[in-house]
Amino acid sequence: MAGLINEEDLATVRERSRIDEVVGTYVTLRRAGGGSLTGLCPFHDEKTPSFHVTPARGFYHCFGCGEGGDVIAFVQKINNVSFAEAVEYLADRVGIQLRYSDGGGQRMEPGLRLRVLEANQQAAEYFAGQLIGSAGLAGRQFLDSRGFDKVVAEQFGIGFAPTGGRDLGQHLKAKGFTDDELVKAGLIRENGWDFFQGRVLWPIRDAGRSVLGFGARRIFEDDRMPAKYLNTPETIVYKKSNVLYGLDLARQSIARKSQAVVVEGYTDVMACHLAGVDTAVASCGTAFGDDHARLLQRMLGTGDVAGGEVIFTFDGDAAGQAAALKVFKGDQNFLAQTYVAVEPTGLDPCDLRIQQGDAALRELVGRRVPLYRFVMRNVLAGYDLDRVDGRLAALRAAAPLVSSIRDNSLVPGYLRELSQLLGMDPEEVRREVKVTVQRRGRPAERKPDHDEALPGMPEPKASLPVPDPTDRRLEAERGTLRLLIRAPETFTADWNGLSADDFTHPAYRALYESVLATGDGPGIWTQRVLQANPDPVLEQLVVSLAVEPVLRTPTEAYSREYSSQVRLLALARQIAQLKSRLQRTNPLEDQPAYDRMFATLVNLEKQRRELLAVAAGPAA
Known about the structure:
- By secondary structure, this protein is of the alpha+beta class.
- 48% of the residues lie in helices and 10% in strands.
- It folds into five domains: 88 residues, Alpha-Beta Complex (DNA Primase, Chain A); 127 residues, DNA primase, catalytic core, N-terminal domain (DNA primase DNAg catalytic core, N-terminal domain, Alpha-Beta Complex); 132 residues, Dna Topoisomerase Vi A Subunit, Chain: A, domain 2 (3-Layer(aba) Sandwich), CATH 3.40.1360; 58 residues; 144 residues, DNAb Helicase, Chain A (Orthogonal Bundle), CATH 1.10.860.
């Protein structure tokens, strides 16, 4: 059992640990009058700040969830640690060596956290010195190739780990650090070799600018470590799921602008800050996760949903789309609105700055689009929107995205946007989204027993679906085929201008294709049609059509009326699809294509008017 902390040391820790400074590293605080500070509570989700800190009294209290206490209680709660661990954390922070009464071993050596932070700081200074020396030439060349000079390297504290293998360890041990301390800091390995060798390094700091660890990039081809990037291993101060590179530089701007820009790499953070996007941060050695989201939310310091925004920059490739989907699934962690900024050329922020300058990088962030819209467009891209069934499938795939939008006031706008992207009626989209959402999670209905194969019987051979003779939507198609089977002589040589695409049901289309493939010759007409496609479904269909009654004596005019109705319906589908494509095409971005489609639409409308006159007869 751990010994008790000396009471005098405990009182000194409380005295020197200013609660506003400690809380301020986790929560953005603003003055609220009466000597108190206020911010968003880090212990529960809220939109209006109800978390108050009173520096004069050394206490915090949340009027929303009731949490409160002194600076030690805050550290216990925020870091989920014991009382002793919280005191040790604060003691290390203010440089106090704690004394313990007899009582057994300690969970952590007294002062270890402080020693680790000191070792990291010494290492950062050593690495920075190596970069500007003769050993750091390769590192300087790499930075120069990325558009960063000596001044920039100093601004961001960039360093270089020498290739010797034991240089850092020897340097720090000469400063009084032990092997055990350096291993626990993640600076050397158990065998005594430096953890980082022959790499460019970025110091990763917390909001209070303490060095927690490092990120390193390979620059030599013969590097023994295969990974392009290497990060400090997990230590008592470095937890990769809880740190963001650049947070020390961006913290104040994030709070002031209520904006955070999340990029993917260390050089991207640098490029953004140099270009004026001073709210940029990046995750370190891991994907952006829920803990990062909560950390940023606290830094934003606003509960106004419309007032804060988090902007992610992703590549336009499959990996970038997958990353966007992952963030989308965790979007509920943000009270701010989430956006995506994607460079059409595929350049990352650093390369974009190199090739096109600072203004291009600022414009990239300015062109941000809502995360929902980005994800929705990527979902729709997987479907053929030129087909009716493709648009319906895309709508059903996008429906859950719309239903998950956090701010209900935005849903109508996204429904309208979805309808525009699909080229569909907004009311139809709204109804389908409602139905699809209601169906989500329901188990698939079991097929009727008569549809199941009997035991011991072979699987039935795939065949054409059997059309329903009572389907009024297919009445014109069936009536036309009935006349083709019963009275082919009433049609012109080109079968009244019909095409296979005019028939929507697979069986009706297959039967018409059989008619087209049937040449002149002896024998019964229906038999010759079936010989062109001996499918059992077609055989039964031909028999049915041959015996179905015809209400009028077949004539050329009667056949023209039926075939004109089929062509008219097909033409209407073409017109609807073309209008849908026109609605999805921006004439300012692709004027030639827009003009071609518009001319085609005018021609189709002309054909439609001509067919209307023919199809107006009393076909039945």
